[in-house]
Specification:
Chain A: Keywords: Cell membrane, Heme, Iron, Membrane, Metal-binding, Repeat, Signal, Transmembrane, Transmembrane helix. The complex is a heterodimer of chains A (477) and B (544). Chain A is mainly alpha-helical and 477 residues long. Chain A is built from 18 helices and 6 strands. Helices cover 37% and strands 5% of the residues of chain A. The chains are: A mainly alpha (477), B alpha/beta (544). Chain A binds chain B through residues 315-316, 318-320, 323-325, 332-333, 335-337, 340-341, 353-354, 378, 380, 387-392, 396-400, and chain B through 43-46, 48-49, 52-53, 208-209, 211-215, 217, 219, 227-229, 236, 239, 243.
């Protein structure tokens, strides 16, 4: 996955990842013409995902609110506007920002900008990107809102230490001679421009990517970025190359449908990449060291499900009974809310317009967050000019609003009948996904009480130290 | 007498399409709004469940009311069997057995989504053809509001297709039409050489994802309920209004209206289901309870200063009740038609919507009903005593060959077509039932002779057998008249902004204001008039 999501009020597991819900904007119209290398790289890097503010936002003019656990981070205007954008940046200053996260004025960029990944970009690609931004992107004189996170995150300088301590910034990519050109191209794209690991690699306590769990899957706000290592059970090792490529380019295969942030990645970026580059990414992913996951015993797409035909007897028994609003029966709710499209047997339509829930990676995951998030927020994906939409069922839904208990009941019915029967969902889990998932420990620093406690603890320690030193000095005398 | 009082800038009575859309507009523009509805909240999943569990007989008779249970404190019509709520009298009583739903969202919970604009001549029927009445508003004045309503509802229409006659447009429909199903295709092809142009009906139904709702996939279940939300319902406006701070109060049955010395509305009082009384106070009041409940409430709320009823100094409240008297025909076609592919209503013959003949007899709309025939086929096959494979074959044959077509007529306003409060029948709260006397008039009867010929010609062209044509006029739930608009306070109830002549701060946002019925569904025009009333209300309260 390339970026994270920001459904209403969603807080991210970490604040490194940007989260546009932006549908494919008109800005991509010019992606159809023969494009420059820099333009292609800008798409591969999905700059517009964050730097364009949604469907109606001006191309790369910023203003998109990336919801982080620490507060909203607003993307900046990166058009060549001299007043509000990057029009005054030299190539070197541009490279510093993209690869090192340092602004022209020397300030540190919040790592919502994935400069850790972008630091791998080669000099030639940085130059091509710079050319594109300076000469092809239309300048727009429009300010972007100021980001003001609470203390201590308001101190941007602290990021300097964070970057250093976690070796965030790497050297530009150098081909590995032990592998062929395709593999090297694939690794470069995966780790560099496409910044896959920003979502798919879990993070440590200080929110830096955990190298030992490279691409092994992580929670991203409400959604789950699954394990994409070559593990044949927990990862994508059992997917065919053709299916992987189809998925990345269209967001849709027999077994999988891209939703949430992955749908955005497909929509804004992957669908425009060349078949050769897609094949390279797939070839490289095949070689990523497998990482198994406890409890995952079969590939996500392989859960066969138990047939659950419509029960006429049960339906008749329900006739004229109390309101569905008060029922917690997953079977009843599934029939009323889901079966009109996915059918009573969960197999959707024969042409796949409505996907089968049986043998589907969303219902087959051990971690049910993607299933919960799909029910809450729906699926919205535009590929090749065609929009696919499953409505959401959260509080904003015009189609049907469901509460946490109802969604848990439906999800459990789906999991036990069509998906991974080992997984289960509680109303509390639904509430967390609805709210944007669990809070990151480090974000608690923004809580004045927590901060005060820490400062107080620090003062006590400091005081003790001072006393100890004085005592030591005294004793020496 | 009142146990509690709630206050807002605007109180709207009726959370159907007009009241809800208006509530959304006003709340979005910063006004505080209380939206009352006599009926309960309704849930799509429950309605779907109710429909699925209905007996086959009801389905075969197109019973769209039973999935929406009527509540004792706010009864609405149900004819399976007739619950006696709406009392109809007169020579064409059958033609006013309207289907209405009470509850948040109102009757557009079940409709085909047909969202026509009226023709410019519909707005000036009297000046053009010397019959009926003119609207107090012109087509050009309402055009921007038509478009605003189309955008809000998500109307798909035949962009790029020239249809004569049709209402002029400044903007294309928000969405393109969907392709016809097999039934509409075949019907179109057969009537074409006969001189009938069967063309797509503009509908508030998604031909692509729109407003967070999915694309229609032809569940063919628009009535009684779209199971997936691809169709527009009035309830969306209510929910959107709520997000902008409007307060929805369901199960609130307004029964009295307080006026002051200047005949402004001061307060309204409503009953909860237990007949506890509550009072709402506002600067502006809107009654948006459409063509039956609005006049009923105005008559019910008569007070000392307004002894004939609120807004009724003209004695026009409850008069001029209109709809589109219909003639239905069913037959078995020679070729398999397979009604049911696509939505229940996709196309219509509109050649006769306008013309000089309107000075003599009613304009009409002829249509093909694409509702799947399987329920009726099944009931009929069972009644034939068939079993086993013969039964299956007969159901299949009738499902494939069954055809329903209809002709709907415009009707002229007549003061004797009148709604009054029943003297005999009262609901659980003691509120009288509405009683309508109806005669479609010579204008319609004259036209109907020709309509029957049109229908018969079409049936013959399709090789029809078992031809059955209704011998009486049928209702179409396009309730208009009742609180008619006009420039003259002596013969009309509201002005062009839907403001009552009698009460400066009372608006009636309903199809009742429509001064001519035209030939097509009234919903879009009601919605557009209501949005226009919104501008008057905003003008009063924001700048006044």
């Amino acid at each position: 996955m390339k970026k994270s999501v920001s459904k209403a009020g969603a807080s991210l597991r970490h604040f490194l990842l940007a989260a546009p819900l932006a549908l494919l904007g008109p800005s991509f119209a010019h992606a159809q013409a023969p494009m420059s290398r820099g333009h292609y790289l800008a798409i591969a890097s999905d700059c517009a995902a964050c730097h364009t503010n949604g469907r109606d936002g001006a191309y790369l003019a910023g203003g998109y609110a990336i919801q982080s656990p620490m507060g909203a981070i607003y993307s900046t205007n990166i058009t060549p506007s001299k007043q509000f954008g990057i029009g005054n940046y030299s190539l070197e200053e541009f490279a510093q920002a993209v690869r090192h996260g340092v602004r022209r004025d020397g300030a540190q960029l919040y790592p919502a900008m994935p400069y850790g990944s972008f630091s791998l970009l080669t000099d030639a690609d940085i130059a091509a990107l710079y050319d594109y931004f300076m000469h092809e992107v239309p300048p727009l004189d429009q300010p972007s809102p100021k980001t003001s996170l609470p203390f201590p995150f308001s101190v941007r300088a602290s990021l300097w230490g964070w970057k250093l301590a976690n070796s965030i910034v790497q050297s530009p990519y150098v081909a590995d001679p032990r592998h062929d050109a395709q593999w090297n191209r694939g690794k470069y794209l995966t780790d560099g421009p496409a910044h896959c690991g920003e979502c798919h690699t879990p993070r440590n306590l200080s929110l830096a990517p955990k190298a030992s769990a490279y691409l092994a899957g992580a929670d991203i706000g409400s959604w789950r970025a699954p394990n994409i290592t070559s593990d044949p059970v927990a990862g994508i090792g059992a997917w065919s190359a053709q299916e992987l490529q189809e998925y990345l380019q269209t967001g849709k295969t027999v077994h999988a449908r891209a939703a949430g942030p992955m749908a955005e990645a497909v929509e804004h970026s992957f669908q425009y990449l060349s078949p050769a580059d897609m094949a390279a990414i797939v070839a490289y992913l095949r070689t990523v060291p497998p990482i198994a996951e406890p409890g995952v015993t079969a590939p996500n797409f392989s859960h066969g499900g138990t047939p659950a035909p419509f029960d006429y007897g049960a339906a008749n028994a329900r006739r004229d009974q109390s309101l569905l609003a008060s029922t917690a029966s997953g079977a009843v709710l599934y029939e009323a809310v889901c079966a009109s499209c996915h059918h009573s047997d969960g197999k959707g339509t024969a042409d796949g317009y409505y996907p089968s829930l049986v043998g589907n990676t969303t219902t087959g995951q051990r971690n049910p967050n993607d299933l919960i998030a799909s029910i809450l927020f729906g699926v919205d994906r535009s590929v090749n000019g065609h929009q696919v939409l499953m409505p959401g069922f959260d509080g904003n839904s015009l189609v049907q609003q469901l509460d946490d208990q109802q969604i848990a009941s439906i999800a459990n019915y789906v999991l036990t009948h069509f998906g991974n029967a080992q997984a289960s969902v509680t109303p509390k889990a639904v509430a967390m996904v609805r709210a944007g998932s669990s809070q990151v420990p480090i974000a608690k620093l923004a809580d004045p009480k927590v901060l005060a406690a820490l400062v107080l603890a620090g003062l006590v320690v400091l005081g003790a130290l001072v006393l100890a030193i004085r005592f030591a000095i005294k004793s020496r005398r | 007498m009142a146990q509690d009082t709630q206050t807002a800038d605007v109180v709207i009575v009726g959370a159907g399409i007009c009241g809800s859309m208006l509530a959304h507009k006003l709340a979005r523009n910063g006004l505080s709004v209380i939206l009352l509805d006599a009926g309960p909240h309704r849930d799509r999943d429950q309605i779907v469940e109710n429909w699925r569990n209905m007996p086959p007989h009801n389905k075969s008779e197109y019973d769209y009311a039973t999935p929406y249970p009527s509540v004792p404190w706010a009864p609405h019509t149900n004819y399976f069997p007739d619950n006696g709520y709406l009392i109809v009298k007169g020579p064409d009583a059958s033609a006013y057995r309207q289907g209405i739903i009470k509850g948040v969202g109102g009757t557009t919970w079940h409709w085909a989504g047909s969202s026509w604009r009226y023709l410019p001549n519909d707005f000036r029927l009297k000046s053009t053809y010397g019959v009926g009445r003119d609207y107090a508003v012109s087509y050009d004045e309402i055009e921007p509001y038509y478009y605003a309503a189309e955008l809000e509802m998500g109307v798909k229409g035949p962009n790029g297709q020239e249809i004569i006659p049709s209402a002029p447009r400044k903007n294309p429909w928000p969405m393109d039409s969907m392709p016809f199903g097999p039934g509409d295709r075949l019907f179109t092809d057969i009537v074409k050489p006969m001189g009938y142009d069967n063309t797509p009906v503009p509908q508030a139904r998604n031909s692509r994802p729109y407003d967070g709702r999915p694309q229609c996939v032809g569940n063919n279940n628009c009535m009684p309920i779209c199971p997936i939300g691809a169709m527009y319902h009035g309830v969306y406006g209510a929910w959107k209004a709520e997000r902008h701070g409007a307060k929805i109060i369901a199960n609130a049955v307004v029964y009295s209206i307080e006026t002051d010395g200047k005949n402004n509305i001061v307060a309204m009082n409503y009953y909860d289901p237990d007949k506890g009384s509550h009072r709402v106070v506002a600067r502006t009041f809107v009654i948006a309870a459409n063509g039956i409940e609005t006049p009923k409430l105005l008559l019910l709320a008569a007070n000392d200063r307004n002894p004939n009823g609120i807004a009724n100094s003209s004695d026009q409240v409850g008069r001029n009740m209109m709809d589109h008297p219909g003639i239905g025909m069913s037959f078995q076609s020679a070729e398999p038609v397979w009604a049911g592919g696509g939505s229940v209503q996709m196309s219509s013959i509109t050649n006769f919507r306008d013309g000089d003949f309107r000075s003599e007899y009613a304009a009409i709309q002829i249509g093909y009903n694409n509702t799947a025939q399987n329920s009726r086929a099944g009931m009929k096959a069972l009644s034939m005593g068939l079993v086993g494979k013969k039964l299956d074959d007969e159901i299949r044959r009738r499902t494939a060959h069954g055809v329903d077509i209809y002709a709907n007529h415009e009707v002229l306003p007549h003061p004797d077509n009148r709604l009054v409060l029943s003297k005999e029948h009262k609901d659980a709260l003691g509120i009288p039932h509405p009683e309508v006397t109806y005669d479609v008039g010579e204008y319609v009867r004259k036209s109907a002779v020709l309509s029957r010929q049109h229908l018969m010609k079409i049936a013959k062209a399709m090789g029809g057998t078992e031809i059955e044509m209704s011998s009486f006029f049928t209702p179409n739930n396009h309730i208009t008249g009742g609180t008619m608009m006009g420039h003259d306070p002596k013969d009309s109830v509201v002005d062009s902004w839907l403001r009552t002549h009698d009460h400066p701060n009372l608006f009636l946002a309903t199809g009742g204001a429509m001064a001519a019925s035209g030939t097509v569904n009234s919903t879009l025009t009601m919605a557009a008039l209501s949005l226009r009333a919104g501008d008057a209300i905003l003008g009063d309260l924001k700048h006044g």
